[in-house]
Design goal:
It contains eight helices and twelve strands. By secondary structure, the chain is of the alpha+beta class. Strands 7-2-1-11 form a four-stranded mixed β-sheet. The protein has a four-stranded antiparallel β-sheet with strand order 6-3-9-10, with helices on one face. A hairpin with a 2-residue loop joins strand 9 and strand 10. Helix 5 runs parallel beside helix 7 and helix 6 crosses helix 8.
Length: 293
């Protein structure tokens, strides 16, 4: 049993670790270490130290999904890792969990989603040299698309199974590495391939009369990297959008936001845009409209 005079400090340490407050946890641990004497407290402090060391190394690694479209029509999906802090870092996750989501939209604005998973075994570690990118192909994927689609939004999300990270001769726990998702939009052959500016979509939405097809054809041609910018634009302009226009924009906003919220009402979306306009800290997530409202 941990010494009574240390129990409160260890409870604080545990809470900080569980909440992801790593800097707070490290400060508590630094104050705690000189006081631990009994074997159990020493072992417990060492365990927390290893977890925090693993997180520090983990946070030095940048991970993202890279997607290459193949001539066959499928996609080669790779995991790319890089770091610039250590001479060499080796990740040894237990496995990779790859989730594929293919979301299609047609000219009527109807959207449907198909999702499935791959489990990728990791037999050897991923060695990441300093300043160089390490890349490994995870899957070659061929999502099945509905007939008559206007566009399909294919997304790949990756989670690394818990394992270990090795650096400078030490081995530490590995879990919770953030991986930037891969996103590709495939357009119908009938659509022009030239990208549309967010300002053009907004300009068209302000015309006296708009066609839903015209809105959708512009929306799906906006680059995925500019979805947030487009939503920010509509959020700023929300006061000028009539209830009827918000209603017409529901499929467009839903496509850009990427959530399964087609049943959310125009008032729900207006409120969401208002909240987005007021949101100052872009690092905070904003819940999508609740379709059950």
């Amino acid at each position: 049993m941990v010494a009574a005079d240390l129990s409160y400090a260890f409870a604080e340490l545990q809470a900080a670790v569980e909440e992801g407050e790593d800097e707070v946890a490290r400060a508590i641990l630094r104050r705690l270490k000189p006081r631990v004497k009994d074997p159990l407290s020493v072992e417990l402090a060492a365990s927390y130290s290893n977890v925090l060391a693993g997180r520090f190394v983990r946070d030095s690694v940048t991970a993202e999904v890279q997607v290459v479209e193949l001539a066959s029509g499928g996609f080669s999906v790779s995991l790319e890792l890089s770091q610039g802090l250590y001479d060499e870092v080796t990740l040894r996750p237990s496995h990779l969990f790859v989730q594929t989501t293919a979301r299609s939209i047609d000219l009527s604005g109807h959207q449907s989603t198909r999702s499935y998973e791959h489990i990728v075994d990791v037999s050897e570690g991923y060695v990441i040299p300093k300043g160089e990118a390490f890349s490994t192909v995870m899957v070659v994927d061929s999502p099945v698309f509905n007939e008559g689609f206007l566009a399909v939004r294919c997304k790949w999300q990756v989670n690394l199974g818990a394992g270990s990270v090795e650096v400078s001769g030490g081995s530490y726990p590995l879990m919770g590495l953030s991986v930037k998702e891969g996103l590709v939009v495939r357009l119908s052959r009938e659509l022009p391939t030239q990208a549309v500016e967010p300002s053009e979509l907004y300009r068209y939405s302000t015309e006296r009369k708009v066609q839903s097809e015209g809105l959708l054809e512009r929306a799906v041609r906006i680059s995925p990297s500019r979805y947030a910018e487009t939503l920010d634009l509509f959020a700023r302009k929300e006061p000028s959008l009539s209830p009827a226009r918000i209603e017409e924009l529901i499929p467009v906003l839903s496509w850009l936001a990427g959530g399964s919220v087609m049943q959310a009402t125009a008032p729900d979306w207006r409120e969401w845009l208002q909240m987005r306009a007021l949101e100052q800290d872009r690092s905070k997530s904003l819940d999508l409209p609740d379709a059950s409202m």
